[in-house]
Amino acid sequence: MNRDEHASAELVARYAAGDPDIPPDRLWAVESHLEGCEVCRVRLADVAPPPVAALSAAVWAALEPELTAPPARVRHWTRLATWATPSLVPWLIMTLLVLFAVVVLELVLPSDAMPSAVLLLAPIGPVLGVAVAWSRGLDPAHELIACTPRAGLELVLRRTTAVLVVVLPVLLLTGWLTGDSAAWWLLPCLGLTSAALALGGLVGVRRAAVATSVLWALLVVGPAVVRNAVPVVLVPAAGPWWAAVLVAGAVVVLMRSRAYVRVDNW
Amino acid sequence: MMARATSAAEVAPTGYAWHVRAEGLRVKAGRRMAVDGLDLGLGVGVHGLLGPNGAGKTTLIRSLATVLRPAGGVLELFGERVAGRADLRALRRRLGYLPQEFGYYKRFTVREFVEYMAWLKEVPKAEVPGAVQRAVERVGLADRADDKLRTLSGGMVRRAGIAQAIVNDPDLLLLDEPTAGLDPGQRVRFRELLHELGADTCVLVSTHLVEDVAAACADVVLFESGKLLFQGTPAELAAEGGPDDVGDSPIERGYSALLASRGKTDGGKAGAW
Hints:
By secondary structure, chain A is mostly helical. Chain A folds into two domains: 9-68; 73-265, no CATH class. Chain A has 13 helices and no strands. Chain A has helices spanning 9-16, 24-36, 38-47, 50-68, 76-81, 88-108, 117-121, 125-133, 142-145, 153-178, 182-203, 205-227, 239-255. In chain A, α8 (125-133) runs antiparallel to α10 (153-178), α8 packs parallel to α11 (182-203) and α8 runs antiparallel to α12 (205-227). The longest helix of chain A is centred in the middle third of the chain and has 26 residues, at 153-178. By secondary structure, chain B is an alpha/beta fold. Chain B has nine helices and ten strands. Chain B has helices spanning 57-64, 88-92, 110-120, 128-138, 154-166, 184-198, 210-216, 234-240, 250-265, and strands spanning 20-29, 32-42, 45-50, 72-77, 80-81, 95-98, 172-176, 202-207, 219-224, 227-232. In chain B, α3 (110-120) packs across α4 (128-138). The longest helix of chain B is centred in the last third of the chain and has 16 residues, at 250-265. The chains are: A mainly alpha, B alpha/beta. The interface between A and B is medium-sized, with 29 and 32 residues. Chain A: The chain crosses the membrane at residues 88-109, 115-135, 156-177, 183-203, 208-226, 232-255.
């Protein structure tokens, strides 16, 4: 039986029924012909006994959704989670609300002499975010993450970046609304973040961030409120010093990168 | 007939003798020395870590998972010392760890959760979808793979936890109370999975259920008050017990006999509730 010659109806019917008496050579011939001939496959389907038809229907029903389904949707969460954990979302919302409240206060209660609250608080905004992003108590999956190869400086820096990417534009916007130029607070902001991370290699990132924020509140915000003047560390002339802090902090972080791999340094 | 389990004695990996080797290992849990002078060697196979509550099982597993830093002694994983500022990154790629209580992001689906863990474990990007699918199928969650974790039952969440632990095909798999929350049918399937994994992986399963050990482990590590009390096959453990010891099965009797003998030397305290 060559390719041009179709199998006889009788043979197809016996094959479909699984007749054990078909000689092996004819069985082989009909099988190889069916593989290449759509017409005979249709004839085979027509004469297939009910159990075979039921089986192929069941297989088809199981396969059809997968074969005809639209392509899998993009997994936003997984992509996003490589930068920021879902546990950061409540903190980000809180930051936005606090800044909104500060802006409203500034606009409603104009105080000419007082340095603006946005200016005083902007430098520690990202530091607090970093504490939230890399803290054992605030990340439910910390125990799982703690033993993975990526836990360590890379993850700390990714999460810090995520915090900066969200917080800096918001600070810029609020600063623009209240008239606080970024020239006054941007370098202190980055310098403090870098210093907090460097300190974090020694005492844990969360503790370092909290300590930095407390010190900032005591040494800068407090005196500024009492003296009713812009603190000396926040005038644009202090910029070079903050740039130096930024660079020094970054160098310390990179040199001590292995200090970030343990959970007790969180 | 039980499936063939690889015994710890069959260890012959290249380069190092034991996947885990501890010598006089001491690890603190808070202020307490929860692991106090432990000597242990574990190779390929399924090892059951047995011990009463508070024996220090979780602390030991956390230190093997490189989450806790040992306070003293020697700890070697894959023949490399885990101490000080050792490069943990390479070691951690070969680890799988299921904590006793683990948090997760409830909005994630099972697949997203396991994918995220695969990313954290530095599974090559091209292999992630396949590895995730395999892991999810092995724990029998394929039909729930795209459901959010918060919609799953406790047993399913635990299976998702097992899936993330095996997604990187670890050489050392640490499972802390993995059968908690699984129903009897799931436990049986979990033991089958353990047999499969134990063929080429060093698996350490902590449990307080003696029957889990009897059914699934080729090697029993009995751990009490931070020290190794016994290491051997389940049959050897059963041989320790006599008809007078407390327990419903030979292994339970062996277990209580060993704990009781330990209790005598400690002034009879350990045997009490």
